[in-house]
Write a structure and sequence with these properties.
Distance between the termini: 41 Å
Number of helices: 21
Order of helices and strands: HHHHHHHHHHHHHHHHHHHHH
Largest sheet: none
Number of strands: 0
Structural class: mainly alpha
Length: 419
């Protein structure tokens, strides 16, 4: 629960320093009860949970300072690499501290004797850079520059271990996906699976599963929706999926493909059985990505009050439109909510505002398909008042929204068309 620090200090008659000492001691005892002396498992736990990210960075620094005084090179290398992976694999971009990641990478390369150490961390550092550009909708402005950096890494060494092989291909898959060349990304997954199948460890089996799920996601972007649904269905309910660092991400993608293909029941099963939808008092701990998925699900389920709750929570989690992609999705969902709850004039009013916002970010109708959602919403409203149908040009816009990553919003537009 939330608490009033000033009230506690006043009631107990203690100083701010004393309060900090008490909470620090309490936190240390919680950690000890959970993981004893296994510091890396504690860091893994903290890095996997958005609510504890600040605790992760503080605890990581504390452990690192201690180990650098007492540990040997092998222990330090293991510690640095484990934390590089905690940040790289476990955290959404909003929580990845690139400065900390780069610091850990430099320290790792200095103590790791493996000749491929620099290439391994370079793949992960470049992935995070691309991830940040993608989240800010800037990757499209410099795809060639980023691809040159990837090419500069060179070919995969013949002596690459399974960890390097995965990081090497994972970077390339993500790059092609970020620049929306999904066909190329899909081809890289095929090559990656062929190479990774040569490694037989349990670690590698999980990494292969991640690529299988990525293939299902890419089929969704390629508008091969039924194949995508079947691909997800093959893997998504296996218990091992919940052990993956990006399990929540794939649950949300599966929910979307379910909504597109008309499998609302399966979407609901994932939401309620995989704990994507937490208890009411911990909604504020949810990631924007999961919040947006909840809003979509409840809009399609006609539970509009619940949808609105998550839309509002999404805006709170993305102040001042910090992450462009989240902002656009939330604005789409907000517009759909007003339209579907018979507040159509307000929805149209919001459309003008959103089109202006997109134009200010160089996403006008000539540069992007994003504005079509609002153009179509306005037209649907005007046409419905006059008893007319959409023009051929507008029908083409609507058809574009039935493809790829737009499809869930295309289905929403069809739902709005019938409202």
């Amino acid at each position: 629960k939330t608490f009033d620090r000033d009230e506690i200090q006043q009631t107990l008659g203690i100083t701010p320093t004393h309060f900090d000492k008490i909470t620090s001691q309490l936190l240390s005892r919680c950690y000890e009860q959970m993981y004893g002396k296994d510091g890396l498992q504690l860091l893994q736990f903290l890095s996997e949970r958005a609510a504890f990210v600040k605790h992760y960075y503080q605890e990581m620094k504390r452990q690192m300072l201690h180990l650098e005084k007492t540990g040997n090179s092998k222990q330090l290398a293991a510690f640095y690499k484990a934390n590089i992976n905690c940040i790289h694999y476990n955290m959404p971009i909003i929580h990845k501290d690139e400065a900390v990641l780069n610091m850990l990478a430099d320290k790792y390369v200095k103590v790791e004797r493996n000749s491929n150490a620099r290439l391994l961390v370079a793949c992960k550092q470049l992935y995070v850079q691309i991830d940040k550009l993608f989240a800010a909708a800037q990757i499209r402005n410099q795809p060639d520059e980023q691809w040159k950096k990837i090419e500069a890494l060179g070919p995969l060494p013949n002596n690459a271990d399974e960890e390097l092989a995965f990081a090497y291909y994972w970077l390339r898959i993500y790059f092609w996906g970020a620049v929306e060349d999904f066909a190329n990304a899909f081809e890289v997954t095929l090559e990656a699976i062929k190479v990774l199948k040569h490694y037989k460890s349990s670690y590698n089996q999980k990494q292969l599963l991640r690529i299988e799920l990525k293939q299902a996601e890419l089929l969704y972007y390629l508008s091969r929706f039924d194949e995508s649904f079947k691909g997800f269905e093959k893997w998504i309910r296996k218990p091992v999926v919940e052990e993956l660092p990006d399990a929540s991400y794939y649950f949300t993608k599966y929910i979307q493909i379910c909504l597109i293909t008309g499998h609302a029941k399966q979407a609901g099963d994932i939401i309620y059985t995989k704990r994507i939808l937490p208890l009411e008092h911990v909604h504020e701990l949810m990631l924007p990505r999961d919040i947006i998925s909840m809003a979509k699900f409840f809009l399609f389920s006609n539970e509009y009050d619940r949808a609105f709750e998550f839309i509002q929570l999404g805006f709170e989690k993305n102040p001042k439109g910090k992450y462009f992609q989240y902002e656009i999705e939330l604005r789409h969902l907000q517009t759909a909510y007003f339209y579907l709850t018979n507040q159509k004039p307000l929805a149209v009013q919001m459309c003008n505002k959103h089109i202006k916002y997109l134009r200010s970010h160089n996403y006008g109708v000539r540069q992007s398909d994003f504005p079509y959602f609002y153009v179509l919403t306005k037209s649907m409203y005007e046409k419905s008042k006059k008893g007319k149908t959409l023009t051929a040009k507008e029908q083409a816009m609507l058809q574009r929204y039935q493809l790829g990553s737009y499809a869930v919003y295309g289905k929403l537009l069809l739902k709005m068309l019938e409202a």
